[in-house]
Structures are given as C-alpha cells and as structure tokens.
Amino acid sequence: MKRMKRVVIAVPNYILRDEYGEPSSPPIGPAMVAAALRRADYEVAIVDADAENLSMDETADRILAFKPDAVGISCNYITKHNPTLKLGALLKARESNLFVFAGGNHAAAYAEGLLELNGPIDVVLTGEGDAEAQLLLKAMSETGSPVGVPGACIFTGGKSTLLAARGHVDDLDSLPLAAYDLLPMDKYRRFELVTSRGCPYTCSFCASTEIVGTKVRLRSPESVVGEIEHLRNTYGDRFLWISDDTFTAIKKHAVGISAAIEQFTPPVKWSCFSTAVTLNSEVLTAMKSSGCEYTSIGVETTHPSQKRFVGKRVNDEFIADTVKRCHDHGLRVYGFIIVGFPGENEETLESRYRLIEKAGFDDVGVNMLIPLPGTMIWHELVRDKLFDPRKLETDYLFARVSDEGDSDRAANLTASWTQLTARQLIDGVNKCREIGKAASPNYVPRDMGKVQQQVCA
C-alpha cells in the first residue's frame, strides 16, 4: 500500500460567500487536527479557502500544489455540506486516486448525506479529528482500508456504515498546540480558544454533542495560559473568544481559567458562551476581574409548551435576574433566541417579545430554527413527515433573516412545521430584534462578527 505522508486539511468557502462575510477567528478544529498529524510525522498544510475567499478552482489548485496523498475537508456547518461535496468532486476529477475524507460537526451528524451514492468523499470521521485522523491515515497506508478506525464511516452495501465507535480525547492537555503557523493569521481579527470539550445540556436543536458528547473534559489553567502566551507573543494582542459550548458548565473550571487569564499584562479582553443557571456571583466576579467583557447565553424560549425543546428549565424572571446580576458585575450579556419550534404560534411567538423586553439584554441574536442532522428535532420532524432532508437547500439557510431574497427560503421551510406563515416568522424575528434594542439599558451590538453557530444554520 502507498504510504500516506503528505496531507492537506481544507476549509472550503461558502457557495454564497456574500451572505457570510469574512471569518472572524481561525478555524480551530482543522488547526488542531493538523497539529496532531504533524506530531505524528505527517507533512501537513492547511488551505483556509473561507479566510482567503478562494473559488473552488483556486482552492483545488492550492491543495494539489502541495502534492498531497490525502485531503481532509472540514465540514463543520450545514452550509458547508455542498461546498464539501463540490470540492471533493473537483479534487477527484483532477486526481482520481486521491484519498479524500471529511470531518466536523455536520459531517459527523450527517455522514450518510456526504457519503450517499458513493460520491467523492471516501471516509467521514464522526468523532474528534485530532484523535481519529492519524489512525485513519495509518490504516489506509498499511492496509488500504479504514476498517477498525474509531469513528470511521464509509458507504457500503447501499448505505453509510460506522466501522468502529467514535474516538474522543480524554486528556486535552496531551494535545499539541493548534497549528496556527499553517493558517493565514493576518486574516482573523480575533483569537479563538477551547478550554473544554463536551456539553452537559441536551438541547433538541443543537448538534454539538453529536461529536464531542455530553461528558465535559477540561484543559488545565496552565495549558490555557501557555496557548494565550503563544498567541500574544507570536501574533500580537487581539480579542479572545473562548468557544467552549458552555464555558461555565463547571463553575470551578470557569473560575480557575478566569484566575489564570487575570495574570496577563496588558489584560486579555475576552468573551464566552455560558448558560443562565451557572452565572452566580463567584463566577461573574472571576470573569470580570480577568477581562471578560461579555457573555452570551442561550435562552431560545421560555414558553412552557416549548420547554422540552431546550435543555434549560428557566423562566422570564430567572433570565431577567441573571442579566441584572451580570450588569451588576460590569458584564454585558447577550441572549440567543430561536423562533420556529414545532407548533410555534402567535401566542408562543409573543412570549419571546415579553421575555426580551423583561430581560434587558445588551443585544439579542434571533435565529430561525433550522433542523440540524443528528438532533432530536431533526429526527422528530422526519419521523412525523414534516421535513424531507432530501429537499434541504443547505446553501440558503442563513444565520440571519432578511425581508427579501434567498434567505426567505429558511422561513418557508420553518413555516412548514409551525402554525405561522413565513411572513409572520420573518416579522417575528425582526420584531424580537427591535424590542431587544429598545429594551437594552445601553445597547451595544455583540462584537463577534458573522460567526456561524450550531444552534441554527
């Protein structure tokens, strides 16, 4: 068998680039996979076509110029589904013997969609890539088969088949530093850092646990400090986004990491995702003291009839108290709201208006619900024949809703399982945003750029 030695990790560009804009932060997942492969003595390159705004042909040219034996395509979001298939097909058309694999949240949750009809993707890795990629390439070099590789999924017998249980990294401190040197770091205006993996919450609309699971695994404060020092010493001082699914899931960890960050001079300015039930005075004091400027909390909905869709049991008063507590500690707080849960009607939609008005967020991010593969909502809608995945136009499922244009397609899709029209949903999203601005005590837009979230496409 041919020894696979040279590998390219590719981040494809969006099909409809203008709707997403430039990425705010480096693709941390692909950079960590590349680092793990490099430590295993592979020669590795990263092509971030998203950051460099490359066309498909330009992306393929850049990849093939490296003369790779294998290419791994990052497919982290539903809107990267078609770009992954198109890039894979283009690479195969030029180099028919090239080994092409894919990974990331969307790939893990919807392997059958990427592998169906025996297309251009040879293998999908459904677990953590820094644990699985080197095992896959080793197996392909030695036996020519991915059989036995943790998390490897292939198309065989007319369907996708998982060959072995997914791989996870228990000791996050054992991982090498992400391969930032392989990325065009001048293209990103902030740093991204992961201090934990796993999320204990089981929200019906979120696909994150599909790949990282519900068990929370932690990095040590020393490991996190080392990475921040490297980033600052090498690339200068930038805003830091801690992109853990829920940074405050384990309070002791949040306090410990905050205390470690506090040592830096000049102070680190940073933000994170959290959940209302974890934001007590101790955590908020530690976060603020270390330079945290704001936190974003997923609220989605508090209507009693929709609580089964979200992994938190909170009401309007609890959210309002949490927001006030954040403000009292000098932190801005931003709320994520989702419109369009199954059965959504005028009453449930109006409950969002009351929630946002009462809470007094500094800003709100309001998204239309789009079912993601692997989630409870996806399976329920398919089971109840309210949704046909084969008709999903993934290129048009934007993380924002406008009054006209292609993004109306998302509203038309969502309306099919609600009691509202697409027009009512769009108007509802816009009204939520308007109320959010009016209700904010000191409106400050959330400075995170056009970062795609897994809560909705």
What would a concise description of this structure say?
By secondary structure, the protein is an alpha/beta fold.
* Helix residue percentage: 25-40%
Here the CATH topology of the largest domain equals TIM Barrel
- What proportion of the residues form beta strands (DSSP E)? 15-25%
Main sheet specs? 7 strands, mixed
CATH architecture of the largest domain: Alpha-Beta Barrel
- In terms of quaternary structure, what is this? single chain
- CATH level-four homologous superfamily name of the largest domain: Aldolase class I
Note the overall shape: globular
Q: Can you count the beta strands?
A: 15
Please report the distance between the alpha carbons of the first and last residues.
Answer: 40 Å
Strand order of the largest sheet: 2-1-3-4-5-6-7
Structural class: alpha/beta
| Overall average residue pLDDT | 90
Q: Regarding CATH, which class of the largest domain?
A: Alpha Beta
Radius of gyration: 22 Å
How many individual helices? 16
Unreliable spans are 398-406, 448-457
Please give the domain count.
2
Describe what this molecule looks like in 3D.
With 457 residues, the protein is α/β, with parallel strands linked by helices. The protein has 2 domains: 6-154, Rossmann fold (3-Layer(aba) Sandwich), CATH 3.40.50; 189-439, TIM Barrel. The protein is 36% helix and 16% strand. It contains 16 helices and 15 strands. The protein has helices at residues 28-39, 49-52, 56-65, 81-94, 105-109, 111-115, 129-142, 209-212, 221-235, 251-261, 281-289, 316-328, 346-359, 376-383, 408-415, 422-439; strands at residues 6-11, 43-48, 70-74, 99-103, 123-125, 152-156, 159-162, 190-193, 196-197, 217-218, 239-242, 270-274, 292-300, 332-339, 363-368. A 7-stranded mixed sheet has the order 2-1-3-4-5-6-7, with helices on both faces. α9 packs parallel to α10, α10 (251-261) packs parallel to α11 (281-289) and α15 crosses α16 (422-439). The two termini are 40 Å apart. The model is unreliable at 398-406 and 448-457 (pLDDT under 50).
